[in-house]
Amino acid sequence: xxxxxxxxxxxxxxxxxxxxxxxxxxxxxxxxxxxxxxxxxxxxxxxxxxxxxxxxxxxxxxxxxxxxxxxxxxxxxxxxxxxxxxxxxxxxxxxxxxxxxxxxxxxxxxxxxxxxxxxxxxxxxxxxxxxxxxxxxxxxxxxxxxxxxxxxxxxxxxxxxxxxxxxxxxxxxxxxxxxxxxxxxxxxxxxxxxxxxxxxxxxxxxxxxxxxxxxxxxxxxxxxxxxxxxxxxxxxxxxxxxxxxxxxxxxxxxxxxxxxxxxxxxxxxxxxxxxxxxxxxxxxxxxxxxxxxxxxxxxxxxxxxxxxxxxxxxxxxxxxxxx
Length: 323
Description:
By secondary structure, this protein is of the alpha+beta class. The protein has five helices and 16 strands. The protein has one domain: 2,3-Dihydroxybiphenyl 1,2-Dioxygenase, domain 1 (Roll). The strands form two sheets. An eight-stranded mixed sheet has the order 2-3-4-1-13-16-15-14.
């Protein structure tokens, strides 16, 4: 029943084409799946990941055209960390961000590891984190056709930061229900605010950590473009996921029950501060309907949506992807 780490993070974008350009051409991630939102099939759902789309490397985006901007605050997933191999990679990225006019801060240290905070083209808060001093869940492998040299490439998801007004109820979910353990405290960069609590699961390390930030000085977040919709944690397989359904029901935590997302199986629920959590299985994987060498090149639809392909494609704006 122990969670293995971070599975994926899903965010919101207003323009799929601009999103695709930034995450593939600037960040050098691979588009491993071009599909649709299964709950609204006339908008894109894009998945960026490592070379094979391994669990723990996926940063995904739902396209919602004309979506208002995101306003940061409490009850939100406020920062997504992306792993790079070492400190030297951060120096490369610092120069690349200057060359591509990407908004970024200076390199600094957090929880004993060097980081480089930046914002994407829609203002989403992201941070590159060096694996040089990291131990724990293994990273993925950078895409070998990326415009970014492989030795500097993004290898997967790092810690996920949650910002809440009152940390205690979120702590209870993380520890008593999900089985995370407190690893350490890190001083808040904001004067007068509580230390950031760092929790981890499974093998630990960057790929299995949640940073919990308590802020008394912020309003509630307003989710929009550049905001994060939910975070998913890794579950071994479908059998284990069904045990999690039973566990949440026994704890009287409202949840979605078992959901088949085709590329993985899922379960959704909100923790007490309103942040959406997902538990997702490691498989079947993105190569269930496309060979690894051609991931993301064409519109992929789960088998239960395939009969609607003609109608779905007619509503979507064409999106040019790599081949």
